[in-house]
Specification:
Layout (H helix, E strand, L loop, with lengths): L1 H13 L2 E2 L13 E13 L5 E6 L6 E6 L1 H4 L13 E11 L2 E5 L6 E5 L8 H6 L8 E24 L2 E6 L10 E10 L4 E5 L6 E4 L9 E2 L2 H6 L1 H4 L3 E25 L2 E10 L15 E11 L4 E6 L4 E2 L1
Parallel strand pairs: 1-2, 4-6, 9-11, 13-14, 15-17
Antiparallel strand pairs: 2-3, 2-5, 3-4, 5-6, 5-7, 8-9, 8-14, 8-16, 10-11, 10-12, 10-14, 14-15, 16-17, 16-18
Amino acid sequence: MLSTLVLYAYAWTVNPMTVSIGEIGSDDVGSFVRTQGHVRKIAAVGGGGFQIELVDYSDFAAITVFLPGKIARSIEFMGKIVPGAKLRVAGEVQEFGGEVEIAVSDATIVQLLAGAEENRLGLDTLASNPETFDGMQVLVGGEIAEIASAVDWDKMLIHSDGDSFWVDDAERNGARGNVDVFGLLLYNEERRRFEIKVAGQSDAIAPHPSDVPESYAIVTIRELAATPDAWEGRYVAVLGVETMAGEIIGTSFTLADAAGGERYYISCMIFGWGWSTDKRGMAGGVAAEFLGTWGYYSREAQWQVTSGEFTLRL
């Protein structure tokens, strides 16, 4: 009897029942199953373990997979299990917190079927189910319909005698040409640099020469660039400098593709890369594939694919 039970348990784990994610329910608790899907989310839990949410693109059913710490540490490709990667897993169906999940007990039954960089999605799929793919790395393709440099017009570069410094002029009402700049020197965490913020009542960008407001310390760009820490949090006046309006923060473009008799458009952004100075042949009408992260960009109030590096294949 004991040997029969052992053999049954062995067969149960070696030959799990293959099912789709949508077929797994509370009636399967205690069963050993095999399924596959794309990683939508991954979160670290206690003991070095992970909870991985898998989604099936065929019907968008989802399930959580639990990887204990000792299992995760045994998986050589653990670093590649990121949103967008495709996995095949096997494990016992359990119920945790009122939800059904799969608990993996052996690292050898976790397979990486495709990396996130191979997660190709049609523009129609993204457009019709945007929330499903939020935060996932996706590969999209189509024809470049529009292209333009993305410029932050709140920024202004001032320069003098070969030295330069950034100014945050959110009001965009400063003078241009040969000017005097009055503002507060602050560190911009997002851009990782010091900037002169022109925002207060006495702050201004005025034609040179102009009167320096009280309590503003007169400094040169060279002094600010050399020792910014010494001036942080102080009101400074930089006199007789030239200006260049706007800062290029990247390249925005639109991919277009047809599916089911409809034409779909997806907005894309490559931060830190200017297409107009590049010689890779990016232009309207060119077929391209773009690898990036799908998400909602609140500044533009739209869903888009973004990347921090040049990942466009023409």
